[in-house]
Amino acid sequence: MNEFTIERIKTGIPGLDDLIEGGFPKGDTILVAGKAGTGKSILATQFIYKGATVYDEPGVLVTLEEPPSAIKRNMMRFGMDLKKLEEENMLSLVDLSPARPQPKNLYEYPSFDLSGLEAIIHSHIDRINAKRVVIDTLSILAYKFKSRDILREEFFKICASITKKDTTLLLTSEIPARDTGLGVFDIEAFLASGVIVLYNEKISDTSRSRSIEVLKLRGSKHSSRIHSMRITDEGIRVWPGEISPGS
Question: Is there a cis peptide before residue 110, judged by omega within 30 degrees of 0?
Fold first, then answer.
């Protein structure tokens, strides 16, 4: 491998790697954005699960919305046993969901310094020597910030700190139903070297169409089309040769 070759990691999402030169650039920050119900959390968890089970890459999944019990239950529907991975030290689930009391220093008023969150994530990375990290969903934190400048600074610090350990970071961000952007203030998209957008559009009174778009991926030649995507019994699958209607 020469100095100009970008090392890539397989996503574990069938069909997606065909759109992005074989995988995500190792050590980058990737944003997966979409409205509610588009499959962001499934894709993110599948990225962690396949990394551990297929590519021998331990992962840390930080959940800021759903409790781990719900995530484990939901992913078992796709044959993904997260509990087993935890027992094998191939997965560390970090529960920062609203239902769980949080450490006092997680958010420090009034600046909302994220050093507490950063320290928690680092301890889990070090414990299992993680190569993949998911934060689901960053939008929960974004709403706590009053200042766009502070938001950008804090998000930048935590992303840089995580990827400095040669881990690949995947963030999810929910696009509000009436928003045309990619997240709160579009800060997440600014920070990420790659942006994947998921859609679940109504095409008739009785049906919807799921699709996926690689909006950007620095240092990579990627598809500029919107491709069909489905949630199957084994998780998310992308059809590279199947173009979504209207794309």
Answer: yes
Beta bridge partners of 209: 201
Count Cβ neighbours within 10 Å for each residue of 63-99 and write b for 16 or more, e otherwise: bbbbbbeebbeebeebebebeebbeeebbbbbbbbee
For residues 31 and 194, is the Cβ–Cβ distance under 8 A?
yes
For residue 44, the one-letter residue type is: A
Tell me the pLDDT tens digit for each residue of 147-158.
777 778 888 899
What's the total number of domains in the chain? 1
> Tokens representing 24?
């995500």
By the 8 A CB rule, do 174 and 34 touch?
A: yes
Q: Which pair of tokens denotes residue 196?
A: 């994947």
- Enter the pTM of the model: 0.89
- Which of 96, 114, 125 minimizes the C-alpha distance to 191? 114
* Residue at 2 is within a domain: no
Tell whether 29 is covered by a domain: yes
